[in-house]
Write a structure and sequence with these properties.
single chain, 11 strands, six-stranded parallel sheet, three-stranded mixed sheet, alpha/beta, 294 residues
Length: 294
């Protein structure tokens, strides 16, 4: 990411116009659930400096459940779907986003669940929980891939066990395994390629993307390759520079104009919340039902 906010905003305006002009004509339909009218009727996106309270955030994001896309499909449209697929990227604990999907999403039992998790420890635990969920018939199938997702295939050296590594947006990745300050080699998957090889236009695909800031690499790649057209609905966790909710009184907003100038003077980017959630607005312009995740 460019350090200067003005440079990022100018690049965003240019790229957004290009994405909409190139992709919207084929991704959006005049009416129905793949239309702008449908995405315009979704829950509003909060683009303020920071949520006033954690309770306000949970209440607002909870409204996404009222707008889950599958609810909009008619029985005839559902019957034409070849396969229902949920992709949980940054799955971490099975009891987190995977369980949330299984318990709250309509007809979750019909879905094939694919999960990506970089941390071997969490991937192992996820598989164990998935085995139990399989016996209960919680979903059609479960599959875990221990890997990160990005814009190319390969491996990456990532920080382990360091909370500070999670705060380097678009920089070092974090797994949580091993000792603080150490590193490990983790497989990386080109997510656009994976989508094209795994799902088709006849599938109904829901993606949860929580990749600690790497969405600034993954989302442009999906748009540039056109693979975004294979995704019907996305839950996106917005990552931006902010103080922890545990820090009082500096809780929340970090990138004020004064703070941003100070950070930029150090040759770094200070990413504001508005920069994070405008991806959700763009996806909706392309008729992808995008929600902010947690």
């Amino acid at each position: 990411l460019p350090c200067a906010r003005a440079a990022r905003d100018a690049a965003w305006a240019r790229d957004r116009r290009g994405y909409v002009a190139r992709l919207a004509p084929t991704m959006c339909r005049p009416s129905g659930w793949r239309s702008r009218a449908s995405t315009d009727a979704m829950e509003p996106v909060f683009d303020g400096d920071e949520w006033p309270t954690m309770a306000a955030k949970k209440k607002a994001l909870g409204k996404a459940r009222q707008h889950y896309l599958l609810k909009l499909l008619t029985p005839a449209e559902r019957a034409r779907v070849r396969r229902f697929v949920f992709v949980d990227i940054g799955a971490r604990s099975f009891s987190s986003s995977t369980t949330d999907f299984l318990e709250s999403y309509p007809d979750a039992r019909r879905f094939d669940v694919h999960a990506f998790e970089m941390d071997a420890k969490w991937a192992k635990k996820w598989r164990e929980k998935a085995a139990a969920a399989t016996k209960k018939g919680s979903a059609k199938s479960f599959r875990m891939t221990q890997a990160g997702v990005t814009d190319r295939d390969g491996t990456a050296t990532v920080s382990t066990g360091s909370e500070a590594a999670m705060k380097n947006i678009g920089g070092r990745a974090y797994t949580g395994a091993g000792n603080a300050g150490g590193t490990e080699q983790v497989p990386m998957v080109d997510f656009a390629r994976w989508l094209r090889e795994t799902v088709s236009e006849d599938d109904f695909v829901v993606v949860k993307l929580d990749v600690e800031g790497s969405e600034y690499t993954v989302l442009p790649h999906l748009l540039q390759t056109g693979a975004i057209s294979l995704i019907d609905e996305m839950m996106l966790e917005a990552h931006y520079d902010r103080h922890s909710w545990k820090v009082i009184p500096q809780r929340g907003a970090f990138c004020t104009d004064t703070q941003a100038r100070a950070v930029e003077a150090e040759g770094k980017a200070c990413v504001h919340r508005r920069e994070a959630v405008r991806w959700i607005a763009l996806l909706r312009e392309l008729c992808v039902h995008a929600h902010e995740w947690r």
